[in-house]
Amino acid sequence: MREIVVLSGGVGGARFTRALRDALVDEDARIRVVVNTADDMWMAGLRICPDLDSVTYTLAGVNDEQRGWGRVGETERVSAELHEWGIGWPWFTLGDLDLGMHIARTSLLRDGVPLSGAVSRLTARWDLGVELLPMTDDEVETHVLTDEGSMHFQEWWTRHRAQLPARGFEMRGAGSATPAPGVVEAIESADAVLLAPSNPIVSIGPILAVEGIRQALAATRAPVVGVSPIIGGSVVRGMADACLTAVGTATDAAAVGLRYGARSAGGVLDGWLVDDVDAAEVPELESAGIASRAVPLWMTEPEAARALARDALALASRRG
Ligand code: GDP
Ligand code: CA
């Protein structure tokens, strides 16, 4: 059985993971997804885990494909009530179905179940076809440093639409966080580790900031292959360019690959996929020790997304 581990953020990682699952539907494969939890927060007494929920909803097929996030058929009656009382953030609306997930999760956490246990319990409701693992059971929160002080990542991203210049990011708690149960074992026994085309700074960045995960990635026999979230010098969707700019990295497929670095030189990548339009960047990446290929990276159509997943696996097995 082929064992594959994916490192994932929210929406971008979810689309890639769904495509990978669907591409391998006829194969004996085990897919485990290590999901970023540094966007998580407490709000209105509830633990909100945006990236875990994006991946869960997408794999379960209950996501709102048109809007791009959240549950399909969502209503917002509870949030409207909370806003009347001034509870929570006025600029942050949670859907009613989504709130059901947060209440269920918080209930389990309050009973002493670790986040990883809550995730396996909550995802068991659907046949996801993959196993989700939070990167850690410890609380890690990304804070953004701005000229107006530091704030939770969600405030910067949602309220300020990433328009407030960021001076840097602080993954609070990441330094002392330990990988959730199963994460290190999954990476160690994997045949391939894939970095989804997720935000490199605030989605993949916090996962790599967990020391135990970084060590496992350095030690694994599996090739580590990433997919660029940047195509032709721009983010496909979202505002990841604001994150890259803040840390002094160009919004460019090669720059992101080089920022991850070659595993042979202390980085994390053996391989890197860039889009066809960025084919000219392949030699630079290769000379930095990262086996690179130019292939179509758009995941707009399901078949194109599955082809991308196959390309990532092909690059991984080429080295293996
Ligand atoms: P978030 O946590 O919901 O922001 O989602 P992720 O961090 O997992 O992914 C966001 C990133 O996905 C964005 O920065 C985009 O650059 C990338 N992305 C979205 N759609 C596509 C696509 O079709 N192709 C590629 N290559 N990247 C994409
Ligand atoms: Ca996220």
Automatic annotation (TrEMBL):
Tell me which NCBIfam families the record gives.
F420_cofD
Q: What is the protein named?
A: 2-phospho-L-lactate transferase
Q: Which species?
A: Demequina zhanjiangensis
| The protein's Enzyme Commission number | 2.7.8.28
Signal peptide (UniProt feature, chain positions):
none
Say yes or no: keyword Magnesium present.
Answer: yes
Q: Does the keyword Isomerase apply?
A: no
Its ancestry begins with: Bacteria, Bacillati, Actinomycetota, Actinomycetes, Micrococcales
Q: What class of enzyme is it?
A: transferase
MF (Gene Ontology):
LPPG:FO 2-phospho-L-lactate transferase activity
Keyword set, alphabetical order? Magnesium, Transferase
**Origin: domain of life:** Bacteria
What PANTHER family is this protein classified in? 2-PHOSPHO-L-LACTATE TRANSFERASE
Q: Name one Pfam family in it.
A: CofD
Give me the gene this protein comes from: cofD
